[in-house]
Write the structure tokens for this entry.
Amino acid sequence: MNEQTNLDRRKFLVRLTLLAGAVPAVLVSVPIFSALLGPLLQRQKQAWRRVASLSDIAVGETKLIQYVNADPLPWAGVTAKAAAWLRRETEDRFVAFSTHCSHLGCPVRWEDKAQLFLCPCHGGVYYKDGSVAAGPPPKPLTKIDVRINKNDVEIRTAPVPITTITQ
């Protein structure tokens, strides 16, 4: 009878010790996991931004446009702004490309006479439709969604990932 009581007391103390260790471990791990997984689980805000009116760009013309990201932070300053190449294909069709080369992210420039995008860093060349013409870029320029809203041209923006990590 006495041995039975000792075993029960021993099991009780082991369980109490495990519980005393588990509770602080859970309390410490909840903020750590929420900080690590929170940005991954957050839905990125996207917004349509007006970047031009229909009369600003002629058919066949390519222009550099600047816009504010979808979720600018108050302290972001200039980094809240982004740019894109906007091209008018037809009267009612626009296409927008990222200004960054798909190779290493250098800014590409538009050469109107050659109808090519050129990357000065490693000699990447893109056709006017954003496909790779020559050089090291592994894939075409990133396309950005464009829509026409009444007389305005709008592009879909998303926050720059690095700016939302610190929220």
The first strand starts at residue 47 and ends at 53.
